[in-house]
Write a structure and sequence with these properties.
The chain is mainly beta. The chain has no helices and 11 strands. The protein has one domain.
Length: 218
């Protein structure tokens, strides 16, 4: 019988992983990140397999991330008003990578990306900013069109690609601050939840001390 440990393995370490530089992050065709941009599966510390392939890249213009989900049996279900229940990706970024506080600062950001859920027939992808619960301060309002998203839906899953412009990230200064506090949560009604750092029931959604360090490398 498998028994879940009381303390997740990812909670026991201060974890840091590389995120590689890419000269061009976004085009009308989205992004095509090679295998070398794949983010490490830190869930292996708890013997958890990946539900999806997740890759990320950065440059001075912003941050890009892609999600490839396969193995779904149920239709994709997305509602912007119910992000915790919808199929899709949430991303948290702290441009100051602070790990000794438990409430978000104005440098902490939360974004939601979903493969469908907008448009007349809810068939268009979704990209939006969300507030962080219990934050001491919220970041400045993001400019219009600073978030980009595209998706390809398939019978057994989807490809989701997103771009967060530097103007949407308060304090994003890679030359002076080459580390980001970072976490993602991929939610899927078939495949469950996949997170980079510790997942539920720990309050990773609002506690920056639980996020991973993303090292911006060239």
């Amino acid at each position: 019988m498998n028994i879940e440990p009381l303390i997740p393995g990812r909670f026991l370490f201060r974890l840091a992983i590389p995120c590689r530089y890419r000269k061009t992050l976004w085009s009308t065709k989205g992004i095509s990140l090679r295998d070398s941009y794949k983010l490490e599966n830190l869930g292996e510390l708890e013997n958890k397999s990946e539900a999806a392939d997740i890759r990320a890249a950065w440059n001075e213009t912003g941050f890009a991330i892609s999600v490839n989900v396969v193995g779904k049996k149920q239709p994709i279900w997305c509602r912007p008003t119910r992000p915790e229940d919808s199929d899709g990706l949430q991303v948290w970024i702290d441009t100051r990578d602070v790990h000794n506080v438990h409430r978000a600062s104005r440098f902490c950001h939360r974004f939601l990306f979903m493969p469908v859920g907008s448009g007349r027939n809810l068939e268009q992808p979704v990209a939006q900013w969300l507030p962080i619960n219990r934050a001491r301060q919220q970041p400045q309002a993001i400019p219009e069109n600073s978030l980009k998203v595209r998706s390809e839906t398939r019978p057994d899953g989807y490809l989701l690609e997103a771009f967060i412009g530097a103007e949407a990230l308060s304090g994003f200064e890679p030359a002076e601050h080459p580390k980001l506090g970072f976490n993602y949560s991929l939610t899927d009604r078939d495949l469950g939840q996949q997170t980079l750092s510790v997942g539920s029931p720990m309050r990773f959604e609002e506690d920056p001390s639980l996020w991973v360090t993303l090292e911006l490398v060239r």
